[in-house]
Amino acid sequence: MTALTIQLSGVSKHFAGIRALEGVDFACHSGSIHAILGENGAGKSTLIKIMSGVLQPDSGTMAINGAPVRFASPTEAAAAGIVCIFQELSLIPDLSVADNISLATPPRRFGLIDRRAQRRRAEELLARIKCEDVDPNATVRELSLSRRQMVEIAKALGKEPRVLILDEATSALTSRDVETVYHLLVELKEQNVASLFISHRMQEVKRLCDTLSVFRNGQHVETFARGARSDGEIVRLMVGREVDAQFPPKPERPRRPAHLSIRDLSWENRLNGVSLDIGKGEIVGLGGLDGQGQKELLLALFGVLRGLRGSVTLAGRPGAPASPAQAKTGAMRIALVPEDRKTEGLMLPMSIADNLLVGCYDRVSNGPFIDQARARQAVAEGIAKLGIKVGRPEDAVATLSGGNQQKVVIAKWLMTDPQVILLNDPTRGIDVGTKQELYRLMRELADEGKAILFYSTDYAELIGCCDRVAVMYGGAVIAELEGEAISEEAIVAASLNVDTRTAAHDAPVGAVAAAAVGA
Amino acid sequence: MTLAIASLKPEDKPVVLASAFVLVILLVGTVYTLATQGTAPLLSPQYLVQQLQTGSFLGIAAAGMMVVILLGHIDLSIPWTMTAAAMMATTVGGDMAIPVGIAVGVAVGLFNGIGVAYLRIPSMIFTLGVDSVMRGLMVAHTGGFAPQDAATPLMRFFAAERVLGVPVAIFVWLAVSVVIAVMLRRTAFGRAVYATGNREAAAYLSGIRTRLVILGAFVVCGICAALAGVLLAGYSAKAYQGMGTPFLLPAIAAVVIGGTRILGGQGRYVGTLIGVVLIVLLNSVLSIMQMPEAGRQVIYGSVIIGMLLVYGRGARVTS
Fold first, then answer.
1. In chain B, positions 277-316, which contact chain A (CB-CB < 8 Å)?
2. Taking CB atoms and an 8 Å cutoff, what residues of chain A touch B10?
3. Which of A306, A334, A347 to mutate to test the interface with B (most CBs of B within 10 A)?
4. Per-residue pLDDT tens listing for chain A (519 residues)
């Protein structure tokens, strides 16, 4: 294949006023495996989405070998040879492996799909990634997660990429498949294909990639050859997000006895032995890169997940709740502010009053009947307590701004008088002013004696708000930071599972992959 | 006028439009009778009361159907729930006739609810299957013939007698309406129905026992269908094969014409009431006009589709 260079110049992208990329100049070349590193929200995903035609840049240009290009869709990008394997799987579960691999451009005979050719093609591609054991006629639904990811890779190979983008493509793979992918990437490199590799695992990046680029705050910080920087230097390049909010002071007080105690909590392959204690009056942060089991931990504590192993002790009593309905009542009193307020937190077309009351009808009812006066009073109190800016409580909650919607979700839960509050990234997509109000509110609630577990993708928040931060990696708490030890550098280092204090040693990759995947 | 309608809340707009259409139907029917016969029977209270009496069976069935549709589900087992309740009531007879009929509704509702809420089978399929099973059971029970048992005097009283010149059936419909309306607006269960219908995940994560809510809604629907069936048997003096079959589609149509979102979460009970009145009057005007059956079906279907087109999808709330 001929040599190829993709050059991005001055590319910017904004989402609803929030900048995702700002004036990025970036280039990648054929015959190279190029790693992209950065924290959550550094702009990695936006970058690859622009390169692969999923998103269009607000400004700036992209050029292949000097000729400007502009992709309106992933299909156009694929035609130019840029193929992306996304983190979220794009396979259709009820179609066969062969159908999925040739979905966009099936081989045809007399205008109809040539199933025999399609099957042959699938077999060839699967053989290339040593997945001969996958039956091309099996539906994708029957395959394990790791095998599905491999089918995804076969599908991408089928498009004959000149630039292959892998977004955390190895995170779902078993160690054997990981090795296969490594070999494949090296093979592609020899065939002069450019690979862009996004990974949170420093060890595999160091073993595999020849060039590394660090992104921070939507900007391209630096590109350097492998070995030019130490782990510590790389972590320092990644940190340094702007702190755009003020945090309330943290009180000095001794560590409280555990109110909520988690031991060796496991669930499927997403949680792998989480142990954590949270005391009354404490704000414990959950850190780590996205998708390391933080959301599952919160859902498990709220009684949503079935088949938990390990133990949860709440206020001296063993046992996790069996359902959210049980979690919010009785002695447990757990509240969860869920990840997506629009689909999990609120009934958007319903009124603000209805949304506020939905968790606490038992508190404003006489028998089965709602006491209108008490309900009105409860709504007024909730609105006042959080300073929600509403016209009338009868208005649809959809008419509120994002920040005020999130306040409605929180106010709803405060009406149930919770003792444990689980927060799943509550400040995402809301304005700075409201964020600061929420930080103050969290501290007030902690001072009232509530135990708060706070997951955030924004490290600055974790540092500013939390008494302790537990960093998760591969479904387990890998580090607990307290007091002065909570620094962005420490969180990032723990998130990547690298130790910046000692000289970095290259661990055998197989072992690392096994630890991360199979643990 | 246009502006006034546009500024209405989304759940009120269909109520206003349907009411207006009821007046249009009355007007068109009256103009027709005045022109052809020189009289206006449509406007006489006696005629209207009689129409409402025949409408009360549909009204009671539609009330239950609305609760299920508010959840975004549907109950297609209404026809044979009605028939089974009527047949069991007349078979048992005596004082236990009505309680036994209602118990049939509770049992079918529980069964439907368990299938939909706990076994997670789509309601459209599950209730259709239940309807067929009930039909088979009833054919086995009666041997396929019209049962000879007559309705009890109490059933006849509730369905066909008059008190103060007003059919008792209308009072029963009124009582059911009050219960359903209060339940939907003023009880935790009712609000939970709206919450679950709007966004089941959010309702579940708010600690609502969504499966119990779904189960409860199907039980309510089953009870309403059974009551309608028992009354219909009282009205006809006996139960007969397929007596509930003509009620299924009008019940769904009444709920939807009344502005309840077929996907759940939105709708007012008064809308369902008006929807029932609209369907009953439309049918009676068409029969006064001596429209042949084929034409009636075409007009009837066109009106339902037309009404929904006028309501539009409205501004969808997604953000």
1. none
2. 349
3. A347
4. 567 888 999 999 887 666 788 889 999 888 899 999 887 778 888 888 899 888 888 889 999 888 898 888 888 888 888 998 876 667 888 899 999 888 888 888 888 888 889 999 999 999 888 888 888 898 988 887 788 888 888 888 888 889 999 887 777 777 788 888 888 889 888 988 899 988 877 778 888 889 999 988 888 888 988 888 888 888 888 876 555 567 888 887 777 788 999 999 998 888 999 999 999 999 999 988 877 889 999 999 999 998 899 999 988 888 889 999 999 887 889 999 998 888 899 998 899 999 999 988 888 998 889 999 999 999 999 999 888 887 788 888 888 878 889 999 999 999 999 999 999 988 877 777 788 889 999 999 999 999 999 998 888 888 888 999 999 988 899 999 988 888 888 888 888 887 655 433 444 333 444 444 333
Q: Do B206 and A358 touch (CB under 8 A)?
A: yes
For residues A183 and A67, state if they share a domain. yes
> In the structure encoding, which two tokens stand for residue A13, read together?
């992208």
Question: Is A238 touching B (CB cutoff 8 A)?
Answer: no
Q: Do B205 and A412 touch (CB under 8 A)?
A: no
The whole domain housing A353 covers 345-417
Q: Which residue of B has its CA nearest to A348?
A: B317
Residue A23 located in a structural domain:
yes
Nearest beta carbon to residue A368 from set B187, B198, B318: B187
Helix (H, G, I), strand (E, B) or coil at B149: coil
- Does residue A252 fall inside a structural domain? no
Inside any domain, residue A9: yes
Shared domain for A172 and A207, answered yes or no, is yes
Same domain? For A407 and A447 the reply is no
Same domain, A128 and A171: yes
Q: Choosing among A354, A358, A397, A417, which should be mutated to test the B contact, i.e. which has the most B CBs within 10 A?
A: A358
> Which amino acid would we find at residue A35?
A
State the CATH architecture for B8-311. Answer: Orthogonal Bundle (1.10)
Its pTM stands at 0.80
d(CA A297, nearest CA chain B) in Å: 15
Report ipTM for this prediction.
Answer: 0.85
**Is A349's CB within 8 Å of B201's CB?**
no
Domain final residue, candidates A368, A389, A417: A417
Specify whether A142 is located in the same domain as A215.
yes
- Is A519 among the domain residues? no
Q: How far apart are CA B271 and CA B42, in angstroms?
A: 22
How many structural domains is chain A composed of?
3
Looking at the complex, does the CB of residue A401 fall below 8 Å from at least one CB of chain B? no
Question: Which chain A residue has the Cα nearest residue B319?
Answer: A398
Same domain, yes or no, for A177 and A278?
no
